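seq as requested:
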Amino acid sequence: MSDEDLVTRAAQHITQGDFMEAMALFKSHVDANPEDPAGYHGWAEAALFEIQQNGNIDDSGKDRINEGQVAAYFRKASGLAPDNSEYLAAHANALLEFDRIPMAVREFQKLRDLGASDDEVDVSFHLYEAARMLIDAVDLKTDFDRSHSFARQYVPVAIEFALLGLGFPSANEATEYLAED
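struct tokens:
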């Protein structure tokens, strides 16, 4: 089976909800093609879907899938393809999912910088979603207390991401727009 067929078959397993088989196929692809980010990204996506759908705690109370491994595979994919906004966003989203908010923000900032440096790359959707997820994560962590120091640190970042996600070139320009009569 060709590498392309293997990746396609793995992706089909994801769409069918057979995440563990997809992970096995993507792992085979990674082993055969260690410089191809698609295998790392695919494995991590399948693992994250498995965790989200079926939980991550086994009968003995241990993690079924190592969240650090998931984050590492997302990081590897985005490192191999630093101009791929999908890989950067997936890595940052996984970090938020695993309650690693400061690390997620750094990855979203890389995504923001990628969008600012390349007119061909539209990251607005990713940043808008990042804002929503970041606010949710901060609210849960602070029990909805926006005066909490953690919230005061990250709510402005979420607002910046939301404004950029709405298509403003910068938060300052959005603020100027709001200040107009």
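The chain has two domains: 1-81, 99-181.
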